[in-house]
Amino acid sequence: MMTASSRMVTPCEPHGFRPVGFFFGLDYMVRDRVISLIDGFNLYHAIARLKQLPLEWLDLQALSRLFIGSQSEELTQVFYFSTLAIHTSEATQKRQTAYFTALKLNGVNLILGQFKKKDRYCPKCASYWTGYEEKETDVNIALTLLELSFQNAFDRALLVSNDSDLAPAVRKVLGRFPDKRITIVAPPLSRQCNELIQAASDKSRIHPDHLKKCLLPEKLQDKLGRISIARPREYSPLN
Questions:
Q1: Are the beta carbons of 77 and 109 closer than 8 angstroms?
Q2: CA–CA separation, 208 and 46 (whole Å)
Q3: Where are the domains positioned within the chain?
Q4: Is pLDDT larger for residue 189 or for residue 9?
Q5: C-alpha to C-alpha distance for 216 and 213, rounded to whole angstroms
Q6: In the prediction, which pLDDT does 131 show?
Q7: How many CB atoms lie within 10 A of CB 7?
Q8: Sign (positive/negative) of CA torsion 13, 57, 34, 1?
Q9: Closest Cα to residue 31, out of 82, 65, 81?
Q10: Which fold has domain 29-235?
């Protein structure tokens, strides 16, 4: 668990090798395995506040690598948890679908929840309307973190979120597997969630400059060239 003596981890800070053996008279090391779990809408809303649409065409692999030790760790898996916003405009849905496709072509594991309709009422104006709530994302993140912990699939996990609902899962994992580490990575210009930080091993933060360094290319395609996706016009970098 994170204590008062814990410190913030900065991007690219080394975290140390694990010695694993002796080969031809030389010690050799294996790098720690790092996974990245990204709360999609938590990160999206933070980026949206920057009011720079091109930053939404974000390379999550590259972004995650900014927060690992370049020599001592390796990024093994990236998971993106989100939901197709079916209640938004057709143009917005097309951009979101294009981004989902780009992420998958770039090797990101996409895990989707759903939006559910919810009737709402305003007592002041006595009006009713239909709202939408994102469902399943927190549960999907927690279950994935727990499952990968029991599979011993990582040594350190990056958790990009500031949602306090994830704190119980973080506590459970670190209580059951004290040799593992979980780093809370706060989205840009967002408050850091004290409950999450107290549950985790350490913390870090995404800055706007990190986003600018980690944009996807204009076009992506699979290894066979059968599936490709072009960057939506709205995401074109501003010169």
A1: yes
A2: 10
A3: 29-235
A4: 189
A5: 10
A6: 56
A7: 9
A8: positive
A9: 65
A10: Rossmann fold (3.40.50)
CA–CA separation, 128 and 233 (whole Å): 37
Block residue for tokens 């779990």: 37
Mark 210-225 as b/e (b = at least 16 C-beta within 10 Å): bbeebbbeeebeeeee
Q: Parallel, antiparallel, or unpaired for β 73-82 and 109-112?
A: parallel
Nearest residue to 180 (alpha-carbon basis) of 153, 214, 203: 153
Encoding tokens for residue 33?
A: 């395995």
CA distance 46 to 37: 16
Other Cβ atoms within 10 Å of 73 Cβ, number: 22
**Helix 167-176 / helix 137-150 crossing angle, nearest 10 deg:** 10
pLDDT tens figures, 216-239:
999 999 888 888 999 999 999 865
Count of residues for the chain? 239
Average pLDDT over the chain, rounded to whole? 85
